[in-house]
Amino acid sequence: MRVRIDPGGTVGGETAVPGDKSIVHRWLILAAIGDGISSLRNLPPALDVRSTARCLAALVPEARRSLDAWASNPAGTPDGQGFTINKGEPRVPGARVEVRALGRAGLQVPDGRLDCGNSGTTMRLLAGVLAASPFTSVLVGDESLRGRPMDRVAEPLRQMGADVRTTDGHAPVQVTGGALRGIRFETPVASAQVKSAVLLAGLAAEGETTIVEPVRTRDHTERALLHLGAPVRSSGAGRVTVEAFQHGGFSAEGPGDVSSAAFLVAAAALTAGELTVSAVGLNPSRTRFIDVMGRMGVVIEHLQTGSELGEPVGDLHVAKCGGLRGTTVGPDELPLVIDEVPALAALAAHAVDATRFLGAGELRHKESDRLHGLARLVRSLGGHAAVEGNDLVVVGGGLAGGGAHAGGDHRIAMALAVAGLAARGPVEVEGMEAADVSFPGFLETLRGLGAQIGG
């Protein structure tokens, strides 16, 4: 799918974004291993989340019908509630799914391989769940997912007692679960997915399970478990401990995806617009990009209005932005903005001086090699950027326009569209459909807010 981005419009108004897929992945999994009925609302129709739902449907017979129905038709659920993509209008309720489950003991042998699609979150977190299940499962994925490292999650699960086999360190991943023992594991790479997988395994392990991160990462799993009553202890030093626990059913409404909102905020900042994004997740481990954008000259206000399953929820408001300036994102800060780096790079391309993302090697292991992909993005549109070891340097000075391919990466696709809004000439983006992985309706939302986008 090719689209043309014409500079000159102003992105502004009030809107919302689909539910946070990072959070909903975890809530769906917790619902599937809970003992009781869980009701989840405002589920995003993102392809990644639907992969999680399909895999869980194969493991939880009691929830198979509801999960399969939603995954196949996220625009409408059996109870008649639909999901509406907002087009520059305030948020409306999203889809609802009811999950009936019988706890960890109720998981059953899947009929075939579990297809995780493009979702690394699905594959890694399910490996943690299946590590305690007394049967063999095989997790597979698409070509992109098969290129992503899986030994980083397999190793701690092996230490806990599970038989986890990768394919030269990648998917397919075969998990034969059983009795687990608690361990203390220090992750060599900061990864919320690895942390969550180990914590999910620890819920079924004998003794304490502790994971220590080099840099603290997003804490959605810990927050949900604490809210459900699990014995979880966290320290500010990046150490989390959990003990065996079986939770019941629960009810929650997914907050809007703040990482998706970051692209709309960047679009407003680049076009001197004033924008409000309502009902998004304001978890501090996910909002560091606000600080980075603030250093670049973008004034963003955020106000908490409520909470869901331990997650703060509220509104983001960006006032008109003047000139953009460069900044430095250090290696300690980088993991807290890992999903927003593409949006930040789109801003950085139009700053008056250079922006440096230091210690960004983990970007190589996303849906694509984002480290080099973002540098190519900027250069293909007439800007200047380079990769220096594990650092990304975006020189700034603006973009001329031109054409580029998203390469199957949803955040690269959105970054291209956003960067093009302030280019000196039109930008043509090939492969824009990749945005549906995390933000279905992204282009429609931008158009509704005033962006000039052609088919």
Entry summary:
The chain is of the alpha/beta class. The chain is 30% helix and 25% strand.
Which labels suit this protein?
UDP-n-acetylglucosamine1-carboxyvinyl-transferase, Chain, 455 residues, 30% helix, 25% strand, 4-stranded mixed β-sheet
Describe this structure in words.
The protein is an alpha/beta fold. It has two domains: 2-18 and 255-454, Enolpyruvate transferase domain (UDP-n-acetylglucosamine1-carboxyvinyl-transferase, Chain, Alpha-beta prism), CATH 3.65.10; 21-252, Alpha-beta prism (UDP-n-acetylglucosamine1-carboxyvinyl-transferase, Chain), CATH 3.65.10. Helix content is 30%, strand content 25%. The protein has helices at residues 21-32, 47-59, 64-72, 120-130, 143-146, 151-160, 192-202, 220-227, 258-270, 288-295, 341-348, 370-380, 410-420, 442-448; strands at residues 2-6, 13-15, 35-43, 95-102, 114-115, 136-140, 163-167, 170-176, 180-181, 184-186, 205-206, 209-212, 232-235, 239-242, 251-253, 275-281, 300-308, 311-318, 328-329, 355-357, 385-388, 391-394, 402-405, 427-430, 452-454. Strands 23-24-1-25 form a four-stranded mixed β-sheet, with helices on one face. α1 runs parallel beside α4, α6 (151-160) packs parallel to α7 and α11 runs parallel beside α13 (410-420). The radius of gyration is 21 Å and the shape is globular.
